[in-house]
Specification:
alpha/beta, three-stranded parallel beta sheet, 3 strands, 38% helix, 22% strand
């Protein structure tokens, strides 16, 4: 798994003026997901690219969406 992850790494994206930081939220609590997403979206320089309730659902979405940042619950089911 580590070798696969290392081969998928990408270089950091340079933000152009007006581009937003794309964040993916992984949180098993629906309420916490909503609160985190709302807090992030309140910053005009941030957009929530996607959300998932567990690690297994998150991994393929993160691979597809390629967010700049992933927030992850420290006690995550499925990881």
């Amino acid at each position: 798994m580590i070798a696969q992850t290392a081969s998928r790494r990408r270089t950091a994206r340079t933000l152009e003026p007006g581009q937003k930081i794309r964040v993916f939220v992984v949180e098993d609590s629906a309420l916490a997901r909503k609160l985190i997403g709302s807090a992030l979206e309140s910053d005009p320089s941030v957009t929530v690219a996607g959300c998932a309730s567990n690690g297994l659902d998150a991994l393929p979405q993160i691979e597809r969406l390629r967010p700049d940042v992933v927030t992850l619950d420290i006690h995550m089911p499925g990881i």
